[in-house]
Amino acid sequence: MITLYFFGRNMEYVLDYYFEGVGMIYYLVLYFLGMAVADIPTIIKYRDHPNYNSLGASGAVSAVLFASILFNPTNKIYLFFIPVGIPGYIFGILYLIYSYYQGKKMADNINHDAHLYGALFGIVFSILIQPSVVPRFFDQIFSYQLF
Length: 147
What we know:
6 helices; 3% strand
């Protein structure tokens, strides 16, 4: 939830900037629709496994995180116990790969598929509501000095 606190606040500001007065509505749609969309593949995948349980908002948090990365790809993301920030777009790529791999592996009790599909939803949602985010995303990355 600490991720939601920091990146959710950022997305509130971004969406208020683009949609004056109704940014909070867009934010709530991103969050709650992200939660629903992130869980659909899991529901389908485990429909014949009545003992499978998955509950949480991590798919929605991933949607918010990746929407934030799309709007601000060079903002640094810090992980606990790692004192160096990682640019959001690099973190995003690594996170997508990790979530995909772990979702296929199914070696723990974490719904990595919800993380993956929530992240993808956050990207698609952002592009749908603000298509100009795509060229700005690449402009920011190509003008960014990594070192």
